[in-house]
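Input/output pair, single chain:
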Amino acid sequence: MSLLSSRREQKRFVKFAIVGGVGTLVDYLVFNLTAFLLGLPEILSQGVSFAAAVTSNFILNRNWTFRDARSKRLRVQLGQYLLVNLIGLLIRTPIFAWLAAALHTVMDPLQLPLDINASWLAHNLALAGAIAVVMLWNYFVNRRWTFGDVE
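Output:
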């Protein structure tokens, strides 16, 4: 079941990536609303936004990307999905930290156009890289374990 082995798997991966994009938007939206509009501490807001993104991604993946995966009970699939995503968060954090530090080293001495803050850019690029790596982890593990009953 290689990603490139069948057209069906390629379509599933694209759907999974689209759902991931929606989840990223949910994550940023909920974080900014709870932290900056409601005034919750950023660390709490980050947890709330992570939970919202994982929830929306599970619903979309179960009902669109892997809609034919129904041999497992909803509760079992949700538990597996949450575990995979928590491990993904543990993978993402050190990747993000390493990339941010490396990008800071490169970008801090540069004069960026349009008054772009080098620190802001380094962190956002690091986050994008970490998300890309973890998306692959999440897809392959969820495809084989959480939604392994699809053809």
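The radius of gyration is 17 Å. The helical segments are 7-37, 42-65, 74-107, 118-146.
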